[in-house]
Amino acid sequence: MTVTGLEAFDSTVQKTNLWLKDIMIELNTDDRHHAMIALRAVLHTVRDRLMLSEAVELGAQLPLLVRGIYFEGWHPAKKQLKERHKDQFFAHVTHYFRNEPDVDAEKVVRAVFKVLAHRISEGEIEDVKHLLPVELRELWPEPIVAAG
């Protein structure tokens, strides 16, 4: 069924809903708004720590609607953040949840990282991970190794 009459828009809405559903499952919630805030918070927090070229490469792999969320409010000329510790990263994520003071930022980050790892190419995820400090790399799920 078409919602907008434009296949590209209908497709990206469907893909975005799948991403949000995955995040909701990981966070054990039925709150779509919470899942959307989680996605935005983590994407923005990661984006602001990447070099310009890598930020653009990651964005290119996102569905159209998620890409819009990712690039929302971005200032590419601004210097990338160089914070080295998880707590600093979590503080940025928590800022997006101003109305939910008890949010578990680590759980949110791990959930979104898991969905990104599932939905984006392994090569791109590896590129992103290796540009982040070790403490942040540890938040990503371990790659699934096929039994052989």
- Number of E strands: 0
CATH topology: Globin-like
% residues in beta strands = under 5%
The CATH superfamily title: Uncharacterized conserved protein DUF2267
Quickly name the level 1 CATH class.
Mainly Alpha
Provide tags for this entry:
8 helices, mainly alpha, 148 residues, single chain, 63% helix, globular, Globin-like
Description:
The protein has helices at 7-27, 32-47, 52-60, 64-71, 86-95, 105-119, 122-131, 134-137. The chain has 148 residues and is mostly helical. Helix 5 (86-95) packs across helix 6. It has eight helices and no strands. The mean pLDDT is 91. The protein has one domain: Globin-like (Orthogonal Bundle).
List the helices and strands and how they pair.
Elements: H1 7-27, H2 32-47, H3 52-60, H4 64-71, H5 86-95, H6 105-119, H7 122-131, H8 134-137
Helix pairs in contact: 1-2, 1-6, 2-4, 2-5, 2-6, 3-7, 5-6
Short description:
By secondary structure, the protein is mainly α.
